[in-house]
Amino acid sequence: MEDIIELKRRRNAVILAHNYQLPEVQDIADFVGDSLELARKALTVDADIIVFAGVSFMAEMVATLNPDKVVLHPDPRARCLLADMLTPEHIRRVREESPNTPLILYVNSPTELKALADYVVTSSSATKLISKLGVDEAILAPDKNLADYVSQVTGVNVKSVPPYGHCPIHENLISRYYVEKALSKYPGAKVIIHPEAPRDARELAVRVGSTSQMLKAIPEVGGGTILLGTEEGLTYRARKLYPNLNIRPLNPLAVCTDMKKMHLFNIKESLEKLKPKVELSRDVARKVKEVIEESLKLLSK
Ligand code: CIZ
Hints:
The chain is α/β, with parallel strands linked by helices. The strands form three sheets. Strands 2-1-3-4 form a four-stranded parallel beta sheet, with helices on both faces. A four-stranded parallel beta sheet has the order 6-5-7-8. Strand 1, helix 2 and strand 2 form a beta-alpha-beta unit. Helix 1 packs parallel to helix 14 and helix 4 packs across helix 15. The termini are far apart.
């Protein structure tokens, strides 16, 4: 670890790590958080280089918002299966079929497609932004479970594009089967769950929220065992924040192998060689920045 700390100092670099990262990566990071928190943090850090430990669309969002900084992504093969379910053809078709319905892209989507959206949201801002639109109908791509959750909370008819879009970790491994299994092992435990989980799993939870909202909810749900229904990496972060609470992953098998492609060795290599760099087309970056800024403006109203 000392070698990475020294390299960071020499390069005037910071390491930003997503909440789902391996423990040793969270420990070496200067900041740990969700994608939006990290992208915002990147705007305020006095560093020339940002090493981003997370999946590619997140590293690209940091690069979009920070065009003057070098953003390194230690393993560009770390992609997001959910984001990759959305194609340019989906966007073309939905714009053609529903030209007047607001098109909102979840942050877990390809960067070049965000440039074609009206708004971009995270799981923490989706509900708020869609209720602020004052519409009866909206399109949210690509997560069907998040779209369903936002519909439930806001009463807006939120259609998912594509209709089958999902995160395989949340859809399969944070499903009702695993919630019931965990509750039978820890009777009376409180489940806090991510909105990418299916509705019948969410029904058994005391709180639903993004990773940052889940962390915030932990001390608010009362004592006893707390089960975190999301990628298992969040449990490490939660236990560090609340060492006296009994926090467990709802399903320890809920591991995103893409998130776990970041290791100390490739972070170190990336700082030594100053690559792989996140490269974005200037036009795409400018357009995505505008869409994100428009979204943040609406959220702050
Ligand atoms: O926005 C993020 O970081 C994601 C993908 C999930 C979350 O809830 O934090």
